[in-house]
Amino acid sequence: MSVRRNEAGAGAGMVLGAAVLWGTVGPARVLADAPLSSAALGGWRLLVGGLVLWLVAGRRAATLRALRDRRALGALLGCALATGLYQVTFLLSVARTGAGLATVVALGTAPAATGLAARAVGGERVGAAWAASTAGSVLGCVLLLVPGGRAGGGADGAGVVCAVVSGVCYALYTVLAKRLIETVPAAHPPAVSALALTVGALPLVPWMAAGSRGLGHASSALLLGWLGLVATALAYWLFSTGLRGVGAGVVGTLSLAEPLAAALLGVLLLHERLGATAWCGCVLVFAGLAAASLPAGRGRGGGARMHGRGPGRTAGAPPPVSRGTSPPRSSCPGANAGSPSGRSPGRR
To answer: What is the pLDDT of residues 151-193, one digit of tens each?
Structure first.
């Protein structure tokens, strides 16, 4: 059990690190002020990050053989399309609404989108925790979008729509990547992410070519260096490696680091101003997302119960006892009072 806990802790740390790095994308875009369109910048970011990650990921041949499975190819293409669309919509939202608000709205819609996508793709059940998370996040986003929420006026409607779409794409990538890792264990997660990033850049090639002149500016080179190497290659390596040992509910909670990092950088470095109502909205978004993780943290294997379709026993559960065989009893008085055998047979 200690090995499993260590693996889960390491995976959570990796996902948390990836979320923090992704939170720097919006502020970096605003600070650099590079002469690149959102589509061109997103495409170059995916291409640079995907190629670098492919070179350092390892197990490339084994991954390619594993991905010959038709189910794996479908999930890979879905990840690629979600990644490409996310880049365009998120960077457009940053340009129109600001880094802090774009990130908060995108991640505020992710819980509902993740629950619906997990239900549609994997048949996972959604319960009270998911409903509470969704309600809190939606209410928080409403407070963020009211005209008095942001100092200086209301939010841009088109930018908000782009942020919502990017949140849906974020959820689709998370669900499909998790499904791909579970169905094709032989595929190396960082190599799979590298392929998804590279393929996701292909639809953006026309915009990349049209904006190629902007690559000669120093600001563009610095921005692409940060986004491609750090906020993409390193971030996706951390995320894909940690995703294997962390449940989707925990991933949703750890993703709070992304809007938190973006909001703090937006206020501290970009001098963005949020009114009292917007700050209340931020708190509700964070509280709503955190509510989804509470059941997973109670009891043994709580996180695994959220994904009962997965193979193997629930994490931390006792070994099965054959029918007709009594479990060994301890000679110590009261040692068996709380043993698993005292539970009802069908209880999980």
So the answer is: 555 567 888 889 889 888 988 888 888 888 888 887 888 888 8
Asked whether the beta carbons of 109 and 137 are under 8 A apart, the reply is yes
157-183 vs 235-243: helix crossing angle, rounded to 10: 50
Domain ranges, ordered by start, for the chain:
2-295
329 within 8 A of 170, measured Cβ to Cβ: no
Torsion of CA 236, 166, 224, 43, to 10 degrees: 100
Whether 18 and 257 have beta carbons less than 8 Å apart is answered as no
Q: Which residues of the chain have pLDDT under 70?
A: 1-9, 100, 122-127, 129-131, 133-134, 137-138, 141-142, 144-155, 247-250, 252-253, 256, 260, 263, 285, 288-348
Q: How far apart are CA 271 and CA 266, in angstroms?
A: 6
Tokens 């849906």: give the residue. 168
pLDDT in tens, 233-283: 999 999 888 887 776 656 766 776 777 677 677 777 877 777 777 778 777
Query: pTM of this prediction?
Result: 0.71
CA nearest to 163, candidates 116, 106, 118? 106
Distance (Å, whole) CA 136 – CA 150: 19
Helix (H) or strand (E) run with residue 178 in it:
helix 157-183
